[in-house]
Amino acid sequence: VDLFRNLMKSAFVVERQPCMPMHPDRPLVIKTGVQFTKSEFPELNYQLKIKVCIDKSRKFNILGTNTKVMNMEESNNGSLSAEFKHLTLREQRCGNGGRTNSDASLIVTEELHLITFETEVYHQGLKIDLETHSLPVVVISNICQMPNAWASILWYNMLTNHPKNVNFYTKPPVGTWDQVAEVLSWQAVCKLLRLPDHLGQVLQGKHGWQRLLLWVWLDNIIDLVKKYILALWNEGYIMGFISKERERALLNPKPPGTFLLRFSESSKEGGITFTWVEKDISGKTQMQSVEPYTKQQLNNMSFADIIMGYKIMDATNILVSPLVYLYPDIPKDEAFGKYCRPEAAPEPEMGGDSTSTIQPYLKTKFICVTPTNSGNTSDLFPMSPRTLDSLMHNEVEANPSHLEAGNTDWFEERKRGVERNSYY
Amino acid sequence: VDLFRNLMKSAFVVERQPCMPMHPDRPLVIKTGVQFTKSEFPELNYQLKIKVCIDKSRKFNILGTNTKVMNMEESNNGSLSAEFKHLTLREQRCGNGGRTNSDASLIVTEELHLITFETEVYHQGLKIDLETHSLPVVVISNICQMPNAWASILWYNMLTNHPKNVNFYTKPPVGTWDQVAEVLSWQAVCKLLRLPDHLGQVLQGKHGWQRLLLWVWLDNIIDLVKKYILALWNEGYIMGFISKERERALLNPKPPGTFLLRFSESSKEGGITFTWVEKDISGKTQMQSVEPYTKQQLNNMSFADIIMGYKIMDATNILVSPLVYLYPDIPKDEAFGKYCRPEAAPEPEMGGDSTSTIQPYLKTKFICVTPTNSGNTSDLFPMSPRTLDSLMHNEVEANPSHLEAGNTDWFEERKRGVERNSYY
DNA sequence: ACAGTTTCCCGTAAATGC
DNA sequence: TGCATTTACGGGAAACTG
């Protein structure tokens, strides 16, 4: 019996990372009604029937075949394994009473649950109940809860090695910025983010709200990068997180028309913008940024197309593009031309005779323009760019710089880093 | 007993129109996994338990409480009624064999099913099985099948009064254009469409493919109108279906800058475009149309915004708007100004101090431009507008006009019609 | 391999519960 | 009443299945 118990302990050790991938990047977060999987279960060398369960703090039901007999696989180490697929979780909404939340003090994305795997072993007439469990998981009901849920998972695994402390968030510890950075580095894209120090200060707060606010912002940016601008990101074209002071220091010595791409820090949704150099009439160097583009807008138009088509409209309705060189000195066309949408081929007609007739429609394209005031038509710009720029300048001065001296060329450094790690 | 049977017959009469609304506009189409309802069931004046079933041609299961005891309601006519809510259909995918389709010759959207309502009545010691059924319904598994399914429902109800001819589509009859027009008039928006005669010719074909092709096109336009341009439609601003010849006849005497809005007939997805008058250098009157805007594009930008912002960019990058008067002579601003998106208010900052600092970003807006060739930057327009226009003109000449003489001002007529019927 | 059909599941909107 | 959470389901894409 002792022999068994020892074997158990080692066999049932809970691996740290991959447990229940729902979204492959977000283990340990399970959405109700969405399938999840538990696979590659190292086991004892016996014919065992395993049953999957979940803790009873809330009434969840596991749908799907939740028991399985393990097979001897010709797998890696010759141990037994079982794979649970097509499992879904559904909360049991009892007819009327029975409130859902076991601990009403916790919000649902900080409520931790355990998924257990039970089996029975008979050896020399003795019945032994074996049981192991997953790391704590967070159960969500809508994907919009994912950022918060994932923040909880990261925070937990960052600050504890306890395998089943489901009450972690009743008094969560405070983490340091270095720990946060390390956790973020677990994620592929985040490895490249190189978050600036000033963001870490936000995390020094107690826990909860501020922490989550930052995380939601970061997560939205990660999402934006992965979905919309990954190619540009991998090219190293996107400066990403950069303080306004550093931006100014980089762009100031550059010729007008030089621009860089950076994330916006001003909105919770996360956005990306570009800042360029220009000289005003007096010859003074100015920086200009456009209002950040959000996922919503990138859904319809690639960022490369936006950059290539961006124009300033002056008072006489003449369009000029203020973007010429991507920092440090890459011509715009060279950098983004290959990522622009190819010209749409003419579509076939609905009737039969699509061969001879040519589409009699004028082709159009959407471009993004900044109208200056005094334009003759419906211009939406109540304030001149000069005024805005001076305001921006003032704001920059109001925030003293935190620039660290050593990091001379972050852009070049990160680009080399990208070339080493090709995650996508 | 005869008394009962007679009562049954009248009590169980199947109402023609509203039967199982899933999409409120599309009765008799049920999507698996989506709830549907059967309500207000006129019944005999006895305590009856009703059970909902579906025919067994495919293995569908009805989820939800499919039996119900009828209550005496203080309803309209004092008859009994039962309401079935939260019913969903799920196809039973047997483990391996058992092909789904009962009649493989029919596509799934032409496969008709009956939903039956069964009950038992005991009277004077005699047990009588009562049963009624819905009109034939179409079961779909994805919303993208809705246009075809709805076409089947319309076609069926247009051409037969049979209450349960589930084999209708094994040899469907041919319908006339008048019948189609009548069926289309059952739908709110379609009442206003006033389809031109030449579309009816397509429907004279055998059945099936061509019929569906037309329907899908019409349905997409109906959808586009309802979702994106209903306000403009109700104002009577949208000409809608108009032949190129009639368009030319209407616009030709008008001053340059006059434009009208019409649907595109060139793409199955359905789109909307505008055509305007201009004079070329020689003083000759020309018509121009832009490539039609689809739902995809209207998702991001309202049609009013597109119209107000539309510009032609000439070789020197100067923008001019070719749109001045909506046909017949409404100034563009007057017609569409109130439907343009209001200027975005500046968003609060993420930190706390959102009171004093002003967003230092340049506001932008997307506009739709038609670049002419010889522009200096990435222009996508390989053919001059003149060339295109002459091609268009040729195509128009190639299709002889079908204009009927009596219909002098369709626009005004339809606008009055709109004012009479305010469906939305 | 392929096309018709279904499943999967995000993300917006609405409903629901506390 | 308001907010937190869940449900509903359209729609795009992947998976399925003869």
Structure report:
Two copies of one chain form a homodimer. The first copy, chain A, has twelve helices and 20 strands. With 424 residues, chain A is an alpha+beta fold. In chain A, strands 12, 13, 14, 15, 18 and 19 form a six-stranded mixed beta sheet that branches. A four-stranded antiparallel beta sheet of chain A has the order 5-3-9-10, with no helix packed on it. In chain A, strands 2-8-4 form a three-stranded antiparallel beta sheet, with no helix packed on it. In chain A, helix 3 packs across helix 4. The longest helix of chain A has 20 residues. Chains A and B meet through strand 17, strand 20 and helix 11 of A and strand 18, strand 21 and helix 11 of B. Chain A binds a DNA duplex (18 and 18 nucleotides) through loops. Chains A, B: This is SH2 domain-containing protein.
**C-alpha geometry of chain A:** elongated
Low-confidence stretches of chain A: 1-20, 344-359, 374-424
Helix count of chain A, per DSSP?
A: 12
Oligomer: homodimer
The rounded Rg of chain A comes to 28 Å
Output the structural class of chain A: alpha+beta
Integer average pLDDT of chain A: 68
Distance between the termini of chain A: 49 Å
Share of helix of chain A, binned: 25-40%
Task: Describe the protein's topology.
Two copies of one chain form a homodimer.
Chain A: H1 2-11, E1 29-31, E2 36-38, E3 49-54, E4 60-63, E5 67-69, E6 71-72, E7 80-81, E8 84-91, E9 115-123, E10 126-133, E11 138-140, H2 146-159, H3 177-184, H4 197-203, H5 209-228, H6 230-234, E12 238-240, H7 244-251, E13 258-264, E14 271-279, E15 285-289, H8 295-298, H9 303-309, E16 311-313, E17 319-320, E18 325-326, E19 330-331, H10 332-336, E20 365-371, H11 385-398, H12 410-420
Helix pairs in contact in A: 2-3, 3-4
Chain A binds a DNA duplex (18 and 18 nucleotides) through residues 31-35, 91, 93, 99-101, 104, 107-108, 140-145.
